[in-house]
Structure formats: structure tokens, C-alpha cells
């Protein structure tokens, strides 16, 4: 691809990426999700975080002063077109889901209770709210300065449509990651930084739930962080005879005439 054509392709992809990340900001979740709302919202945050991470790894984030990393990754017009098509499909997913939401609202016989939505700032447990805000902030920081389309907030009321949206977004982001394999090492480093940013130990179980559903690289970074936070069990060496008592550790050496609790 000629340099001028590549530059145009980069700007087109940058605009699509920026708007795709922004789409997550306007999705709300209906109260009929019940207790599954909290997990659902965090999974949605995780999908946004993963897309934003891909964008940063290929040079699409911030002010686009240096698109060299993306230009080097793009070797053909076909790759440019593929990236544009995938990002366009993500935008279409949100548009389709918003259309389903509108139909749900106007369907005859709907009660006001069915149309109630959750407010993340009051509906999440404190730890989940902290995690939600951190993932949101990380994603927003990775957006660039290309123009954003005007959008309005809308809600997903049925869990089956929510699951389908997440599955389809995950699949398309997989395609983007596979399209730029040279950027995957950068994504691993970004995952490590993300986990450090969300480093409260109480966040690890929630982060694992988010990652297991869609984000292998983040899951690996969480496992590594958990290893570093977990104290190693002490090594205890027993020798001689007439040993008794309660022991919780790793044994090295021989143990004879050993009694565990109670009388022999």
C-alpha cells in the first residue's frame, strides 16, 4: 500500500476504533437481570477494556501523533480493509442491539417495572464499583482524538441478547488480535499493567470471572499476580521420634511415631 493510502487507512481505523470503544459508554442493563447484573456489567467493562488494549497495542490510542507501530503492522491493503470491516461490524452489533432494545420498549403490554434500569453508581457493591470505574477509566484513556458520533443511552433488558452481544464482540476482537500478531506481546505487557492498576486483592475473584469469559491474556496476568500475592507455605523438617501435634506445611525428612490430634 502506498504511504498516502496507508495514512488514510490508519485514520479511518482510528475513527472506527474510537467510536467502537465509545459505544460501551451508552449501554445500560435492565433491572430484570437481578443479581446477575453486577457480573454482567463487569463483563461488559472487560470487553471494552480488551478492545481498548488492542487499540493501544497497535498505536490507535491517544492523539495519534505517532502511527508508526500500526503502519509497520499493516503490510497490505487487505489488512487495512479487514480491520475496517471488523471494527464496522462491532459498531453494527451495538446498533442492532439498540434496535432490539427499542422494540422491547414499544412492545405492547410492557410494565414500567420491566423497563427499569440499573444505576451502576448505586447498584454495585463497593468493590465491584471500584473495579467498574477503573476498567472504564483505563478504556477511556486509550481513546484517541478522532470525532465521535452522537449517541444516546439505551438498555439491554433481556439476558439472551446481552450474552449474544458479548459473544459476538469477543469473537470480533479475537479477529483483530489475530490480524496483528506482532502486537500481542505489547498486549501481554498492557495486561500486566492493568492488573497492577486494579491491584486490590479483593478484586482478583471478580477479575477472574471477567477474564475467563473472554480474555485469556488478562486471565494469565491475573494468575501470575495472584502467585506473587500468595505467601508460600513454610517448609517444616521433622526428624527423630515421638512427634505429635498439628502441622500445616510442606514436609521434608522422615517422620516416625507421629500422632495427629487425639490419643493414639
Structure explained in plain terms:
It is a single chain. The protein has 264 residues and is mainly α. Helices cover 59% and strands 5% of the residues. The protein has 10 helices and 4 strands, in the order αβαααααβααααββ. The protein has a two-stranded parallel sheet. Strands 3-4 form a two-stranded parallel sheet. It is globular, with a radius of gyration of 24 Å. The termini are far apart. The C terminus is likely disordered.
List the helices and strands and how they pair.
Blueprint: H1 3-23, E1 27-29, H2 37-57, H3 68-73, H4 77-106, H5 120-123, H6 126-141, E2 154-156, H7 159-179, H8 184-197, H9 204-212, H10 216-229, E3 235-237, E4 250-252
Helix pairs in contact: 1-2, 1-4, 2-6, 2-7, 2-8, 2-9, 4-7, 8-10, 9-10
Describe the structure concisely for a colleague.
The protein is mostly helical. It has helices at residues 3-23, 37-57, 68-73, 77-106, 120-123, 126-141, 159-179, 184-197, 204-212, 216-229; strands spanning 27-29, 154-156, 235-237, 250-252.
Number of strands: 4
Beta-strand residue percentage: under 5%
Radius of gyration: 24 Å
Count of alpha/pi helices: 10
Segments where pLDDT lies below 50 for 5+ residues?
246-255, 258-264
Q: What percent of the residues sit in helical stretches (DSSP H or I)? A: 55-70%
Distance between the termini: 82 Å
* Shape annotation: globular
**So what's the oligomer here?**
single chain
The class by helix and strand makeup works out as mainly alpha
Main sheet makeup: 2 strands, parallel
- List SSEs in N-to-C order: HEHHHHHEHHHHEE
- Strand arrangement within the widest β-sheet reads 1-2
pLDDT averaged over residues: 82
Amino acid at each position: 500500500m502506498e504511504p498516502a493510502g496507508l495514512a488514510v487507512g490508519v485514520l479511518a481505523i482510528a475513527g472506527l476504533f474510537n467510536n467502537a470503544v465509545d459505544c460501551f459508554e451508552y449501554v445500560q442493563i435492565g433491572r430484570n437481570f437481578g443479581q446477575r447484573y453486577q457480573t454482567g456489567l463487569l463483563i461488559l467493562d472487560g470487553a471494552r477494556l480488551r478492545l481498548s488494549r488492542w487499540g493501544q497495542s497497535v498505536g490507535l490510542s491517544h492523539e495519534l501523533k505517532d502511527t508508526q507501530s500500526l503502519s509497520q503492522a499493516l503490510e497490505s491493503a487487505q489488512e487495512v480493509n479487514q480491520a475496517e470491516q471488523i471494527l464496522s461490524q462491532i459498531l453494527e452489533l451495538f446498533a442492532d442491539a439498540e434496535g432490539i432494545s427499542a422494540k422491547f420498549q414499544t412492545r405492547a403490554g410492557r410494565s414500567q417495572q420491566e423497563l427499569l434500569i440499573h444505576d451502576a453508581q448505586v447498584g454495585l457493591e463497593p468493590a465491584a464499583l471500584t473495579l467498574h470505574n477503573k476498567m472504564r477509566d483505563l478504556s477511556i484513556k486509550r481513546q484517541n482524538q478522532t470525532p465521535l458520533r452522537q449517541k444516546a443511552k439505551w438498555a439491554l433488558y433481556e439476558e439472551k441478547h446481552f450474552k449474544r452481544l458479548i459473544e459476538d464482540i469477543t469473537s470480533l476482537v479475537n479477529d483483530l488480535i489475530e490480524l496483528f500478531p506482532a502486537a500481542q506481546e505489547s498486549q501481554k505487557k498492557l495486561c500486566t499493567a492493568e492488573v497492577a492498576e486494579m491491584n486490590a486483592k479483593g478484586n482478583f475473584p471478580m477479575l477472574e470471572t471477567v477474564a475467563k469469559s473472554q480474555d485469556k491474556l488478562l486471565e494469565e496476568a491475573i494468575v501470575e499476580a495472584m502467585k506473587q500475592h500468595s505467601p508460600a507455605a513454610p517448609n517444616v523438617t521433622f526428624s527423630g521420634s515421638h512427634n505429635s501435634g498439628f502441622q500445616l506445611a510442606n514436609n521434608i525428612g522422615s517422620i516416625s511415631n507421629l500422632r495427629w490430634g487425639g490419643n493414639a
